[in-house]
Design a protein that fits this description.
Layout: H1 2-24, E1 38-44, E2 51-53, E3 55-57, E4 60-66, E5 74-75, E6 78-81, E7 86-88, E8 95-96, E9 102-106, E10 112-122, E11 127-131, E12 135-137, E13 143-149, E14 161-166, E15 172-174, E16 176-177, E17 186-190, E18 201-209, E19 212-222, E20 231-233, E21 239-240, E22 245-250, E23 266-275, E24 280-286, E25 289-292, E26 295-299, E27 311-320, E28 328-334, E29 341-342
Parallel strand pairs: 4-10, 12-19, 21-29
Antiparallel strand pairs: 1-2, 1-6, 3-4, 5-8, 7-9, 9-10, 11-13, 13-17, 14-15, 14-18, 16-17, 18-19, 20-22, 22-26, 23-24, 23-27, 25-26, 27-28
Length: about 350
């Protein structure tokens, strides 16, 4: 009986060992991928930093190229291919461009697919990618830098037009283009000089290249700033006392065409005072302001009498402006070397 049991145990051990050995020897052969496609193809564009994306169609790589720009003699494409595949010439390699230029994609399983390159010359539609400034102001250096593509597709830089259309009434005017900065992907334009016909508010900016016109941006144009040399006392005092009534004239050098944007919005006046021998500085706020034509009238608060010996160095005019983060826009009248003291 013991011999029988022993034999059974031996047979069972042999079977288990054989089964374990057969399991450990099982191997799975990896399937190699058959995909041999170019998934993305891009080359350098017309200027540094620009790129043109190829269109993949029936094993052709179609490059839509601005007809006004000479074809490159060599290309250094950036290429993406199917998982596991490789391409020759390799991505980033410089390749001479001619009718025989092709790219060979080899799949992981060894199958091969050829791609040829074909340039299609055209007048492409201009594309605007960004505009640097959408808040402009008349008479300041209001420069708009526009970046995009195909700005020279319609001809030389002199054929490009940038113009604004006033949203309120549709009036249009041209912006001045600085052709020193004009190429296929960037240009700079600025507002023309301010005139009596100009207005503030919302404007649409358009770019015209050849026969094609596209909207470039929506901008807000503010009124010209009130320059320091616009202000002067109607009767300039040598000293000022509390409760005194003063008048300041505003001459905007344009017969009131600039002042008209501000005349109903004067809100506050601030006196900036200094006493140089003590390096002391004070401010005095004047709330009640009256505007008659181009004359600003106000009464100096009696508090000024507490600052005897101080000198009036400058005046701030604060004007209501809902678009400003403070709710006010401030303009300066710098008195410079004028010696107006508090008495």
């Amino acid at each position: 009986m013991r011999t029988y049991i022993f034999k059974q145990i031996v047979v069972l051990s042999v079977l288990i060992t054989a089964l374990s050995a057969s399991c450990s020897k099982t191997e799975y052969e990896a399937t190699k991928l058959p995909y041999n496609e170019i998934t993305k193809f891009a080359i350098s564009g017309f200027v540094d930093g620009d790129s043109v994306i190829g269109v993949l169609s029936n094993k052709e790589i179609l490059i839509y190229w601005d007809q006004s720009v000479a074809l490159p003699q060599t290309i250094r494409p950036t290429i993406s291919v199917s998982k596991g595949a490789s391409v020759l010439p390799a991505s980033g390699e410089s390749v001479p461009l001619d009718a025989t230029t092709k790219f060979v994609v080899t799949a992981e399983d060894g199958t091969i697919q050829d791609y040829t390159v074909r340039f299609i010359l055209q007048q492409p539609d201009p594309i605007v990618l960004s505009v640097n400034n959408t808040n402009l102001q008349w008479t300041n250096t209001a420069i708009i830098s526009i970046t995009g593509q195909y700005f020279l597709a319609g001809g030389p830089p002199s054929d490009i037009r940038v113009f604004a259309r006033r949203l309120r009434d549709g009036v249009e005017f041209d912006l001045n283009i600085d052709h020193k900065y004009t190429n296929s992907v960037t240009l700079r334009a600025e507002l023309p000089p301010f005139t009596a016909e100009a207005d503030t508010g919302r404007h649409d900016i358009f770019l015209k290249v050849g026969q094609k016109t596209i909207e470039a941006a929506k901008v807000r144009i503010k009124a010209p700033a009130l320059a320091p040399n616009f202000f002067s006392f109607l009767n300039e005092p040598t000293n000022i006392s509390g409760d005194e009534e003063l008048s300041i004239r505003i001459d905007d050098k344009m017969n009131g065409e600039i002042l008209k944007f501000y005349s109903n919005r004067f809100s506050e006046i601030w006196f900036n005072l200094e006493q140089k021998n003590t390096n002391s500085y004070k401010q005095l706020k004047i709330n009640k302001v009256t505007v008659e034509g181009n004359i600003i009238k106000f009464k100096v608060p009696s508090d000024l009498n507490d600052l005897t010996g101080y000198k009036l160095s400058s005046i701030w005019f604060r004007i209501k402006d809902a678009s400003h983060w403070e709710g006010f826009e401030t303009f300066l009248y710098d008195l410079g070397t004028k010696n107006i003291t508090i008495q």
